[in-house]
Amino acid sequence: MLQHWTLNIEGFGKIEKASIEVSPLMIFAGDNNSGKSYVMTLLWGLLNIDHDFFPQEIPTTDTYKSLSKWLCSRTDQNEFILDEVGIKLVTDFFNETLHLQKDDLVRRIFNAEIPISKVYLSFYGSNAPIRVLQKKSLRSKPFRVESNNFIVEVPWILNADKDHVSRYILIQSLCFALILNRASLWYSGAFYLPASRTGFMLTYKALAKRALRQGFQTMGPDDQMGKLTAPVTSFLSELVDLDLDPQNPFYEIASFLEKEILEGKIEKDQSPVPYYFFSPDHIEGQLSLHVTSSLVAELAPIVLFLKSDNKIQTLIIEEPEAHLHLDMQRQMARAIVRLVNAGLPVWITTHSDTMLQQFNNLIKLNNHSQQEELAKQYNYDEVDFLDPAKGKVYQFDVVDRKTLIRSQPLTESGFAIPTFTNSIRKLAKETIDLMENSDDEEDDE
């Protein structure tokens, strides 16, 4: 990912205080009901901020005035790059807006009232410069990504004192480019694949039909559909309006999942509300998802999104190991690493020590002295190697009904997750004790 920053939150539900540094591969592990999905959902909301996030009225704060003045001083240039001063001014304005809008933002993301005392971004950095080009043509695109450089194009009218609106739009565009890694307001910043994907895959058509019957009117307070979070609603909406694109840069990785885990293909018809089905390898015919195994229905949306024509900036997956045998969990970990190496940030919540160990193995293989021999022995390709600098692991622990979030250090063996290690040790000790004191031994005596 081109941008990196740290999300800081305080007084958010049961989370007293936390700092989350985003990375291409980010893993949340820990206790049940500890807030992992809450934080992921909040991150999704930040990455999918739209124009409603910014106040309709042009701000009059000192922070905004300083940024506006800085931009005006450069409008005599055909092109300029955001320097450290400009980056700080844009970040300060974004954080100021985030503070003012935090309650409304959380309400819209979660479709519920959840307290949040503070939320802001810090330690911003970018691997690519952001250039601002001024164009005399009003038909130029407002924003595009080109050769790993962000380029913001704006009409040649910013030097006019009266054009405060155009300047405000530019400032909003800079927030999207600088902080959110978004190509524009109209690009989807992140796709969220929620837990219980099987249930959604088997009911999305009914949900869509119900919405159509009601004319997409606002749901009542007792309507369960009206209680879905924004990322889940977005997920269902995408399922209804999804088109496949063989040119998707991640299509090949979706095919890897179909080959190594599903042993068949996920396909769709051309009806207005698409019908998804499974075509098993070596068997003629198509199967409706409701008669397939839970593995197929659970994995189907992951495959579909990676095959779709959506411009995915970040992929968030809750419990990607769900319904997968241990061997299949290892293949899923490989697919996630391949996505990260292909340039797609992937953030997951997990309870799988198997997946974590597979990530660790791919980290160790990355710089192993016998990399070529081991890769050949275990059928790995270069795209499976994981650079440890691309990964971050956070453990969520519930202590006295409050959640503590800790970044886990990288050791010689990879990332260690105490919550997994402790559980495995307890189970091993219990197993050994039972074996050493078994009834069979007493009978032998």
Automatic annotation (TrEMBL):
This is Endonuclease GajA/Old nuclease/RecF-like AAA domain-containing protein. Gene3D superfamilies: P-loop containing nucleotide triphosphate hydrolases. Pfam families: AAA_15. Residues 7-123, 269-355 form the Endonuclease GajA/Old nuclease/RecF-like AAA domain.
